[in-house]
Amino acid sequence: RAAPSPKMMENTVFMSFTFYSTILILKMYVVAIITGQVRLRKKAFANPEDALRNGGLQYYREDPDVERCRRAHHNDMENIFPFLFLGAIYSLLDPSPAVARIHFFIFCVGRIIHTIAYLLQLKAPMRSVAYSVAQLPCF
C-alpha cells in the first residue's frame, strides 16, 4: 500500500506555485552565474584578493556591465522573494486553480522578460512594461 501523500502535494495551486517558484529561483541562479562570468571576462573583481589572484590590484574595480548584472540580480531579490512569500500564503487560501496558475504564469514570464530586457539593454519601455505586467498579479 502506498504511503499517504502530504496535503500540500494534493493542493494543485500549491504545486503550480512550486513549479513557477522553482523556475524563478533557477533564473536567479542563472543571473548569478552570468554576473560571475561577466566579472571574470571583464576582469572587474569585487574583492582585492580575487583581483590579486587574477592579475593584480588594478582589477579590483567596478565595471558597468558587471554592475548591470548585479542590479538585475538585486531587482530579482526585491521582487521574487516577496512573490515566494505571498504566493505561498495565496496557495493556502483555496483560490481557483485556473486563476492562480494564470497569476503565477504572468509573474514568472514578466520576470523572465524583465531580466532579458535588463541584461540585453533592450529599448525602453520593454523592461518597465515587463516589470509592470509582472506586478499585476500581486495586487
From TrEMBL:
<dbReference type="GO" id="GO:0004364">
    <property type="term" value="F:glutathione transferase activity"/>
</dbReference>
<comment type="similarity">
    <text>Belongs to the MAPEG family.</text>
</comment>
<dbReference type="GO" id="GO:0016491">
    <property type="term" value="F:oxidoreductase activity"/>
</dbReference>
<keyword id="KW-0443">Lipid metabolism</keyword>
<dbReference type="InterPro" id="IPR001129">
    <property type="entry name" value="Membr-assoc_MAPEG"/>
</dbReference>
<keyword id="KW-0413">Isomerase</keyword>
<keyword id="KW-0808">Transferase</keyword>
<dbReference type="GO" id="GO:0048471">
    <property type="term" value="C:perinuclear region of cytoplasm"/>
</dbReference>
<keyword id="KW-1133">Transmembrane helix</keyword>
<keyword id="KW-0643">Prostaglandin biosynthesis</keyword>
<keyword id="KW-0963">Cytoplasm</keyword>
<keyword id="KW-0472">Membrane</keyword>
<dbReference type="GO" id="GO:0016020">
    <property type="term" value="C:membrane"/>
</dbReference>
<keyword id="KW-0644">Prostaglandin metabolism</keyword>
<dbReference type="GO" id="GO:0050220">
    <property type="term" value="F:prostaglandin-E synthase activity"/>
</dbReference>
<feature type="transmembrane region" description="Helical">
    <location>
        <begin position="12"/>
        <end position="34"/>
    </location>
</feature>
<keyword id="KW-0275">Fatty acid biosynthesis</keyword>
<comment type="function">
    <text>Terminal enzyme of the cyclooxygenase (COX)-2-mediated prostaglandin E2 (PGE2) biosynthetic pathway. Catalyzes the glutathione-dependent oxidoreduction of prostaglandin endoperoxide H2 (PGH2) to prostaglandin E2 (PGE2) in response to inflammatory stimuli. Plays a key role in inflammation response, fever and pain. Also catalyzes the oxidoreduction of endocannabinoids into prostaglandin glycerol esters and PGG2 into 15-hydroperoxy-PGE2.</text>
</comment>
<keyword id="KW-0812">Transmembrane</keyword>
<dbReference type="GO" id="GO:0001516">
    <property type="term" value="P:prostaglandin biosynthetic process"/>
</dbReference>
<keyword id="KW-0444">Lipid biosynthesis</keyword>
<dbReference type="InterPro" id="IPR023352">
    <property type="entry name" value="MAPEG-like_dom_sf"/>
</dbReference>
<dbReference type="InterPro" id="IPR040162">
    <property type="entry name" value="MGST1-like"/>
</dbReference>
<protein>
    <recommendedName>
        <fullName>Prostaglandin E synthase</fullName>
        <ecNumber>2.5.1.18</ecNumber>
        <ecNumber>5.3.99.3</ecNumber>
    </recommendedName>
</protein>
<feature type="transmembrane region" description="Helical">
    <location>
        <begin position="99"/>
        <end position="120"/>
    </location>
</feature>
<dbReference type="Pfam" id="PF01124">
    <property type="entry name" value="MAPEG"/>
</dbReference>
<comment type="pathway">
    <text>Lipid metabolism; prostaglandin biosynthesis.</text>
</comment>
<keyword id="KW-0560">Oxidoreductase</keyword>
<keyword id="KW-0276">Fatty acid metabolism</keyword>
